[in-house]
Amino acid sequence: MARRGLAAGAGAVSRVRFAPSSNNLIVSSWDSGLRLYDADKSILRLEANSEAALLDCCFKDESVAFTGGSDGSVIRYDLNSGAQDTVGLHDDVVVSTEFSQITGQLVTSSLDKKLLFWDTHTRSVNPNHTFMLDSVVVSLSVCGMYILVTVENDVYWYDMRNLTASIKAKDSPLRHHIRCLCASAEWNGYAAGSMDGTVALKYFDHKVDNDMGYTFRCHPRSKDGTSSLVPINSIAVHPSKQTFVTGDNEGYAIAWDALSKKKLLEFPSFSGSVASMAYNHSGQLLAVASNFTHQGADRV
Fold it and tell me: Which regions are annotated as WD repeats (predicted)?
């Protein structure tokens, strides 16, 4: 198992994402930079700076990406030229961005407690749908026609073809606040990680969920004989296998078998907390972003 490093800039990494069909990798950072890497050659292809810290990023396709900024801006990038334009604005810091390849919609969440849906086929700066929620959405994940949304320790999912109401008003798989969520069309379900190091695997089909859904404490740490709570910061689901990787606040990344409920592999620990992880389209590459602190970045 070979580990390669990419210099990720001066600021802490907020998100890593692989392109839909290539091994190009985008990295958003608190230093206001979006960087495009060729992961095969380990080289930087593009660096685009903005005026605000970037808390999230996602691909639209191989040549277009989006970011969410600390100034509330949602920015579109042409990855061939580096040109930028504003998709729209939130009233506060943008926390999460997700793009649906099926519906062509960009979904963003913010500290303003709004969930906004943007039609990327048009150049309108106004969202085509808005949900006002009771609390901040900390994580989003697309699964086919559905967008999954985490609010505190609840998971909601919406059908992006019909945004009149939530499909499932409330699913509470974990006792503590959820920090990260990753849905899987292969599973027809999702994995969620919480503040206390617990992970839940849930399935949309109730019968399957009753048979196969479960929760477990995946990153127990002990010090002086007592257990400590280590938050799960990121989860990456393999695109074609029933496996997933969890990354925690102390720099540990562990691969798990979702069916056997067993640990497959514990990666050599990283020098800082695991901030973000992503598989490439084939599942042969896993990108892991590790940060020393919220102010300083390590390597991707």
Answer: 87-128
User: What's the CATH number where 40 sits?
Assistant: 2.130.10.10
**How much of the chain is in helix, strand and coil states, percent to nearest 5?**
0, 55, 45
pLDDT digits (tens, 9 = 90+) for 139-150: 999 998 889 999
Could you say which DSSP state residue 220 is in?
-
Structural domains of the chain, count: 1
**Does a structural domain hold residue 239?**
yes
Q: 211 φ, ψ to 5°?
A: -85, -35
Token pair recorded at residue 213: 């859904």
> Bridge partners of 95?
none
Q: How many of the other CB atoms lie within 10 Å of CB of 143?
A: 20
Q: For the segment 161-193, what is each residue's pLDDT rounded down to a tens digit?
A: 888 765 655 678 888 899 999 999 888 899 999
- State CA 170 to chain mean position distance: 21
Q: Quote the tokens at residue 239.
A: 């695109």
- Short-list 61, 96, 92, CA closest to 79: 61
Q: Which amino acid is at 279?
A: Y
For residue 179, what are the contacts with CB-CB under 8 A and spacing of at least 6?
Answer: 138, 139, 193, 194, 195, 231, 232, 233
CA dihedral 97→101→106→110, nearest 10 degrees, is -20
Which parts of the chain fold into alpha helices (H)?
Answer: 206-212
Q: Is residue 151 situated within a structural domain?
A: yes
The Cα–Cα gap between 31 and 49 comes to 8
Q: How far apart are CA 234 and CA 248, in angstroms?
A: 7
pLDDT the model gives residue 300:
46
In a domain, 3, yes or no: no
* CB 48 within 8 Å of CB 82: yes
pTM as predicted: 0.91
Q: How far is 48 from 153, CA to CA, in rounded Å?
A: 35
Per the domain annotation, does 265 fall within a domain?
yes
Residues 76 and 255: their CA atoms lie apart, in Å, by 33
